[in-house]
UniProtKB/TrEMBL annotation, chain A:
Organism: Pseudaminobacter soli (ex Zhang et al. 2022)
InterPro entries: ABC_transp_permease
Organism ancestry: Bacteria, Pseudomonadati, Pseudomonadota, Alphaproteobacteria, Hyphomicrobiales
Any one Gene Ontology cellular component term annotated for this protein: plasma membrane
GO molecular function: transmembrane transporter activity
Protein name: ABC transporter permease
TrEMBL record, chain B:
Main location: membrane
Compartment(s) of residence: Cell membrane
Coiled coil: none
Taxonomic lineage from the root: Bacteria, Pseudomonadati, Pseudomonadota, Alphaproteobacteria, Hyphomicrobiales
Protein name: ABC transporter permease
A Pfam family assignment: BPD_transp_2
Keyword check for Cell membrane: yes
Membrane-crossing segments per the record: 27-48, 104-122, 128-147, 159-178, 198-226, 255-275, 295-317, 329-348
Length: 298, 365
């Protein structure tokens, strides 16, 4: 294992962290039967508010938590529009993304900043003592931000919460058979609101990592389609935690590989399309499977 | 007056009242959503101590107050009407073309390719470029359409993903083969041949004959959907697929037709932007016509001809946006916020019920 591979792993982990947070958050809404396309907008809001509150309070964690609270509120507003006002989920999500792009730029301008703001605080990489001493991989695995470690913990947490707790059972029932869930005494409306709130919080973490983990600044439209890739990961991973986690990791790897190959002068544009092509192929395969089942099972 | 003519008058009156009621019914949600959007924007403007009325006045002045303003409104309305039509056609067939931007991008690439790669006489060259761009858009829309037909894959997700694929492929080809050697920072192709350029028909601004093409397309499509067999079958497919299927309508083929038609219109936007405005292929040239197309279609609320006024309305917003920026020092982001909040609320049908309840309570007290 040479130094190139090690640094590729390092940049994969860095690129994958926001994708993992956003995709894992998004799958909760999908499990509850909501087609949540707002991830991109929520990430953008999350990135902006983490920089804003972090700088205002001078503490990076208070900033991130406050940003999480604001995103939960914003996400609940979208939830109200689709759950109670029964708006079209995709159309209103597109409006939400546009609102996020306009809203963050509007607030930047209101503060007298043109293209972006620098953050006075930053998420510092944490060295884990024992892991750090492993040769080659050690420095890569241990020099990550706290949000990266937390994103790894999301996988066991979600697997447990979704498949081993009454809450998870209710959530999945809400998504699969809302009528049956209602009949079984589950408050479908409340479950959906909770799922949307979780999505909002996770996307805020994704945005915070993006803004405070790497650059310590917020720039206009800094998510640049990462929320859409995270949404693709939710679809590609069939909104199951393990699959979605691995797909997000893979998309992060594809992104890191793209940056690397760009350095060698290879066409990066085509490589950047990889997550999207894969998602289309996944939908093809899923469609073929169900078409096959229909024919055989009839 | 004879009894017969009296009855005829009554019938005509009733018909007029009914069509008025239908128009009001169709306009209700767009109007409510626009008011809600204006409310959200006004609140934000008051928060930063700007008078919202000043902003809206500047917006109208910028869009309609001068010849330049009017030409700029028409310039934006041209692609916006087409984009609205493209989305509306999809809606009619019960499909959601979320990847409009991808088809616009494909159309822009092929349109400019024909512009600089082929030699044709003056009148024919732009026509070939626009039609070529339209065909490219239709081809790009064909992929999600057949995936929907044969595999049942959601056309929303696939067409959206193919947007990014279109950007990747077009940018790659331009960088490799057609890049303008003098361009440094921005990725753009060489200029199109002079014979392919769509000239401006106004003394100022950038309005090309495409405005007539847009309006003509709207009228033509409205007629097609209302009066032709294929149009009727498309509407039936969207309204009730099962019923259409058992009535013998080939719903799969009608879906693909509607989606490709939508892609064709989107491709025309890309081509006309490339040969009319930029006169070359510029990477990321599309300032979000895909999003704007949804807004136009949603404001038109299912009416094809309604895309013309809705497109003009959005054109006013776009043209007025730069005036706001210039005179009041506000950024255009306020226009995005307005658009975003209108889209957010426009499909919220329950809002109508809540409003009626609210108004009823106000009256009751």
């Amino acid at each position: 294992m040479d130094i190139l591979t090690v640094s590729l792993i390092a940049s994969t982990l860095v690129a994958a962290t926001p994708l993992i947070w956003a995709a894992m958050g998004g799958l909760v809404s999908h499990q509850a039967g909501l087609f949540n396309f707002t991830l991109e907008g929520l990430m953008l809001f999350g990135a902006f508010f983490s920089v804003l509150f972090g700088t205002l309070t001078g503490n990076v964690w208070i900033g991130i938590l406050l940003s999480g609270c604001v995103c939960v509120l914003l996400s609940l507003i979208w939830g109200w529009i689709v759950i109670d006002l029964e708006a079209d989920q995709i159309i209103s999500a597109l409006g939400f993304i546009l609102l996020a792009q306009g809203g963050t730029v509007f607030m930047l301008n209101a503060m007298g900043q043109g293209g972006g703001i620098f953050s006075l605080v930053q998420l510092n990489p944490i060295k884990i003592p024992l892991v750090h001493d492993i040769p080659l991989i050690g420095p890569v695995l241990s020099n990550q931000t706290a949000l990266t470690y937390l994103s790894w913990l999301l996988l066991p947490l979600f697997l447990f919460a979704l498949y081993r707790t009454p809450f998870g059972l209710s959530l999945r029932a809400t998504g699969e058979r809302p009528e049956a869930a209602e009949a079984a005494g589950i408050n479908v409306r409340r479950m959906r609101y909770i799922s949307v709130a979780i999505t909002g919080f996770c996307c805020a973490m994704a945005g915070s990592q993006l803004a405070l983990g790497l650059l310590a600044m917020f720039t206009d439209n800094m998510t640049a389609g990462r929320g859409i890739i995270a949404f693709a990961a939710v679809i590609f991973g069939l909104h199951r935690p393990l699959q979605v986690f691995l797909v997000a990791l893979f998309f992060g790897f594809a992104g890191a590989l793209t940056d690397r190959l760009q350095g060698f002068g290879l066409p990066s544009e085509l490589l950047l399309t990889l997550p999207y092509v894969l998602t289309v192929l996944a939908l093809c395969v899923a469609g073929m499977q169900s078409a096959f089942k229909r024919r055989v099972g009839a | 007056m004879t009894v017969q003519s009296q009855m005829g008058n009554l019938a005509a009156e009733a018909r007029a009242r009914r069509s008025l009621a239908r128009a009001w019914n169709a306009l209700q949600m767009p109007v409510i959503a626009t008011v809600a959007g204006l409310f959200v924007t006004s609140v934000l403007l008051v928060c930063i101590e700007v008078n919202p009325l000043d902003v809206y006045a500047a917006l109208l002045r910028g869009a309609l107050g001068s010849l330049f303003g009017i030409s700029s409104t028409l310039r934006w309305a041209t692609p916006l009407i087409l984009a609205g039509l493209a989305v509306s056609i999809g809606f009619k067939a019960g499909l959601f073309n979320a990847g409009l931007s991808g088809q616009i991008y494909a159309g822009g690439f092929v349109g400019s390719l024909i512009g600089f790669g082929v030699t044709l006489p003056w009148g024919l060259h732009p026509v070939a470029a626009i039609l070529g761009g339209g065909l490219a858009g239709a081809t790009w829309a064909f992929i999600p359409a057949i995936m929907r037909r044969y595999l049942g894959a959601s056309e929303i997700v696939t067409s959206l993903m193919l947007w990014y694929v279109a950007i990747g492929i077009a940018d790659f080809l331009v960088r490799q083969f057609f890049r303008d050697p003098t361009s440094a920072a921005f990725l753009m192709s060489v200029k199109v041949a002079p014979s392919a350029v769509l000239p401006s028909i106004f003394p100022v601004g950038n309005v090309s004959v495409m405005i007539f093409v847009s309006i003509g397309a709207a009228i033509l499509l409205a007629h097609f959907m209302a009066r032709s067999v294929a149009g009727y079958e498309i509407r039936m497919t969207g309204a009730n697929p099962a019923f259409a299927h058992y009535s013998g309508v080939p719903i799969g083929r009608r879906m693909v037709l509607a989606f490709c038609l939508s892609g064709f219109l989107a491709g025309m936007i890309g081509a006309s932007e490339s040969i009319g405005i930029n006169q070359r292929f510029v990477s990321q040239f599309d300032p979000g016509f895909g999003f704007d197309g949804f807004l136009v279609a949603l404001l038109a609320n299912g009416s094809i001809a309604g895309c013309i006024p809705a497109g003009l309305f959005l054109g006013i917003l776009k043209a007025g946006g730069s005036e706001i920026e210039r005179t009041l020092g506000l950024s255009k982001s306020i226009i995005w916020i307005l658009q975003g909040s209108i889209i957010l609320f426009v499909s919220a049908n329950r809002l109508r019920g809540y409003l009626a309840w609210f108004i009823g309570r106000l009256r009751g007290r």
